[in-house]
Write a structure and sequence with these properties.
Elements: E1 2-5, E2 50-52, H1 73-82, E3 87-92, E4 111-114, H2 124-140, E5 147-151, H3 157-169, H4 175-184, H5 192-200
Parallel strand pairs: 2-5, 3-4, 3-5
Antiparallel strand pairs: 1-4
Length: about 200
């Protein structure tokens, strides 16, 4: 399942949601487990247009967070700006809609939701959607240096896996080089099943 919002350019003309959402909607304003343990935003992956971050949380979560723990969609853009970077696309891999709404983001930044189950290796359809989105963005943004921001809940495993999968399958990077690049960008894959699949699993189309 995936859905577009605020899309721009011929790589997604429709500007509409696609797919249906049967993803988890439970949880209310409960802070995601271990969310506080991770830095809000990583660094740009050297030589790429990718940057990873943990999921920003909408205002209704703030009552459960100390001021220094808060990380909202607005905070995301401020932190990206502090790195002298600019987001051109956000790809949300969380398997829920409860953390924030696309309307919380600037109208000028396209947002793509790709529902991706946690703890499991993403299926071929999910990988294909991710690659298509990245390829379309890069094709339409050759004349600028805007970044593709990718996040799951913590900005680590699903995020790191799909970015590395793209670098391996599309860019031809060696698996260990892609993994090392993600670690250097503070986007450290934790789960061994993701690392093992990147190193020894088949390439995906």
């Amino acid at each position: 399942m995936s859905q577009w919002h605020h899309a721009r350019g011929p790589w997604d003309q429709a500007r509409k949601f696609s797919g249906n959402s049967s993803a988890k909607k439970k949880g209310g304003n409960h802070i995601p487990e271990r969310w506080k343990d991770y830095l809000p935003v990583g660094q740009r992956m050297p030589g790429t247009r990718f940057i990873a971050f943990k999921v920003p949380l909408k205002k209704s979560f703030e009552e459960n967070l100390a001021p220094e723990e808060r990380f909202s969609p607005l905070d995301l853009f401020n932190k990206i700006q502090e790195q002298n970077e600019e987001l051109g696309l956000i790809i949300d891999l969380t398997y829920t809609c409860r953390y924030y709404k696309p309307e919380d983001l600037p109208e000028t930044v396209p947002y793509l939701k790709i529902y991706t189950v946690g703890h499991q290796i993403p299926d071929d359809g999910t990988i294909f959607k991710f690659k298509c989105a990245v390829n379309g963005f890069l094709k339409e943004n050759k004349d600028n240096d805007r970044l593709i921001g990718v996040h799951c809940t913590h900005g680590l495993n699903r995020t790191g896996y799909l970015i590395c999968r793209y670098l391996i399958d599309v860019e031809g990077m060696r698996p260990d080089d892609a993994i090392e690049l993600s670690i250097g960008a503070e986007e450290c894959l934790e789960r061994q099943n993701y690392i093992e699949d990147l190193r020894n699993g088949p390439m995906r189309k």
